[in-house]
Design goal:
Helix content is 26%, strand content 23%. The protein has ten helices and 20 strands. A hairpin with a 3-residue loop joins strand 4 and strand 5. It binds oxidized coenzyme A (CAO).
């Protein structure tokens, strides 16, 4: 037997209307008793609101920026009836992390009888894009104080290996990360800070918060952009024949309940090129001295969602046919747009495809999705006159933009990779070789 209970903000001392700064769980998540569900942060203190019992989170009715006081309902959870008594004993928030040892913070600490809890949340993947759109319950596991300090210092917690209990990131882990960066282990670039400008002096303005996905992905994109020496190799593929074949297979795809867009063919061609150039299907070890060669072919596809960019990963693309890949791409992009992707669905990619082909524009410079070594940007195919040796012929040309990590991949190899990829797309029979 199970029942649904309301989850309320417990006693948080004298604090009222405290803003929600983080959502730590999503509806559908399995929740342990006292697992933190949301984080509240006043100008004096940070508190996590824990689950009153173990069970499944049914709804979470608050969002970042909402202001909460004691007794406010934040959602509902389904628990087994036996847990009922636990539910009534709503635990107090996690201990307050003081920004500064002042009176208000000390007072709030005193209303937190429950000792700091470690939850079962897994620590986040070390893959930067993997955390795009990841339910926040899968964000790195760290105390509010560590998270707050990291935010203030502009340091993402992704990729930091927590040495605390159950992988929790400790103060010391954060300190070590800062030291490593200062010693050149991270981006370590000293850049002038941006000037603070009051735009309202020039005209009417409105300040709008970035989406959660953008807040999470921004630091990773920034880190990848400044810490990886990127070069982008441009190329193009004549996909006239491929497009004729694609059109001829439209009915078959529809019968299978899917749509076969050029991206599906490109996934197949990418796998063939990764097989031909295995060092593209690899990652650098953190000390930068070795390559971890992958024997599997999991391809990430960047999906544009209302909240921002996320990168679900299609696994074992070498073992799947075009229809199966099309079905998976459609299903994953739909789930991405509905915000339903799980963290696991965004992990483990070997190589990413970023397709703007359905929109327009020409070549661009995609940012490598570290720890991958390369990313393929695909733009809209257009008809162009191509010299056949005797005459100009109208051919459907697909622009390709391959950004690669120059620490591992030389320019010559990148040009070979793009040439190989184009050859696969120009004559699909090569994919059978
Ligand atoms: N050239 C010409 N037409 C193309 C094309 C290309 N390269 N790629 C797709 N199209 C066509 C499709 O065939 C489809 O047309 P039809 O319905 O007539 O067949 C139409 O464009 C729309 O395609 P789509 O975008 O719905 O589907 P897709 O499989 O091409 O792409 C996905 C799927 C998830 C990659 C895409 O929807 C998306 O989100 N793209 C944006 C990714 C992004 O923002 N990248 C930038 C990241 S910054 O590095």
């Amino acid at each position: 037997m199970s029942k649904v209970i309301e989850i309320r903000v417990p006693d948080i001392g004298d604090f009222v209307k405290v803003p929600v700064i983080e959502i730590l769980a999503s509806p559908g998540d399995s929740i342990e008793a006292e697992q933190s569900l949301i984080t509240l942060e006043s100008d004096k203190a940070t508190m996590e609101v824990p689950a009153p019992a173990s069970g499944t989170l049914v709804t979470l009715t608050v969002k970042e920026g909402d202001e909460l006081s004691e007794g406010d309902v934040i959602g509902t959870m389904e628990i087994s009836s036996e847990e009922g008594t636990v539910a009534d004993e709503v635990p107090a928030p996690e201990p307050v992390e003081e920004t500064q040892p002042d009176v208000a913070a000390t007072e709030t600490s005193s209303i937190s009888p429950t000792p700091s809890q470690d939850t079962e949340r897994t620590s986040a993947s070390s893959e930067p894009f993997a955390d795009m759109g990841v339910p926040v319950s899968d964000l790195p596991h760290a105390s509010p104080g560590v998270r707050k300090l990291a935010r203030e210092l502009g340091i993402g917690l992704d990729g930091i290996v927590g040495t605390g209990r159950k992988g929790r990131i400790t103060d010391e882990d954060l300190t070590q990360q800062i030291k490593a960066r200062m010693n050149g282990g991270g981006a370590g670039l000293a850049v002038a800070s941006a000037p603070v400008i009051d735009f309202s002096t020039f005209g009417e303005i409105e300040t709008v918060a970035l989406s959660r996905i953008k807040k999470i992905s921004g630091p990773s994109l920034h880190r990848n952009w400044v810490s990886i020496p990127h070069v982008t190799q441009f190329g193009s593929a004549d996909i006239t024949g491929m497009e004729a074949f694609r059109q001829s297979q439209k009915a078959a795809a529809e019968a299978a309940g899917t749509k076969m867009t050029p991206v599906v063919f490109i996934i197949k061609a990418v796998v063939a090129s990764l097989k031909a150039f295995p060092h593209f299907n690899a990652s650098l070890t953190p000390d930068g001295t070795q390559l971890i060669q992958k024997k599997y072919f999991h391809v990430g596809v960047a999906v544009d969602t209302p909240g921002g960019l996320v990168v679900p990963v299609i696994r074992d693309c070498d073992q799947k046919g075009l229809i199966e890949l099309a079905q998976e791409l459609t299903a994953l992009s739909e789930r991405a747009r509905e915000g339903k992707l799980s963290a696991d669905e965004m992990k483990g990619g070997c190589f990413t495809i970023s397709s703007l082909g359905g929109i327009g524009g020409r070549e661009f410079t995609p940012i490598i999705n570290a720890p991958e070594l390369a990313i393929l940007g695909v733009s809209k195919a257009t008809m162009a006159p191509v010299w056949s040796g005797e005459a100009f012929e109208p051919r459907l040309m697909l622009p390709l933009s391959l950004s690669y990590d120059h620490r591992v991949i030389d320019g010559a190899d990148a040009a070979r990779f793009v040439t190989h990829l184009s050859a696969q797309l120009e004559d699909l029979r090569r994919l059978l070789m």
